[in-house]
Design a protein that fits this description.
Helices cover 19% and strands 21% of the residues. It is built from 3 helices and 6 strands. The longest helix has 9 residues.
Length: 129
């Protein structure tokens, strides 16, 4: 069994859209690969006025894998510290992202493919999501 976490823009579970700024999305959709059930939790990290960081929230939820659009080197390191594997390139709906991961179409995040390489065309003032 694996527990996945996908940053999401709303609370509609598998039907919702993958949020491209994983640290600042309002919600995270959790998906259990064994039961195929999903649930949604709020992003209560300091990015949204709460405490802690997204990897800490995910670690408390026993997440094994996070699927997202892309992330920075610092985030890659933090997820590694918590033992959470990260795969990048997720787009579309949450269901699309899970299907892409199950089909091995997403890339495992590393320091080499983080931040500058994920194709965003906006400025992050020297840091990534």
């Amino acid at each position: 069994m694996m527990k996945l976490c996908i940053p999401s823009m709303g609370q509609n579970g598998m039907e919702d859209t993958v949020g491209q700024h994983f640290g600042k999305v309002p919600y995270y959709t959790l998906y259990d690969t064994e039961t195929r059930e999903s649930s949604v939790i709020s992003n209560t990290s300091e990015h949204n006025g709460g405490t802690g960081l997204p990897p800490e929230i995910m670690a408390k939820e026993n997440v094994d894998v996070m699927l997202c659009g892309g992330l920075g080197k610092k985030a890659v390191d933090m997820f590694e510290q918590y033992g959470i594997d990260v795969f990048i390139g997720a787009t579309g709906s949450i269901q699309d992202a899970v299907a892409a991961w199950e089909a091995s179409k997403l890339s495992k995040a590393t320091r080499d493919n983080s931040c500058a390489g994920h194709g965003h065309d906006h400025d992050h003032d020297g840091h990534c999501h």
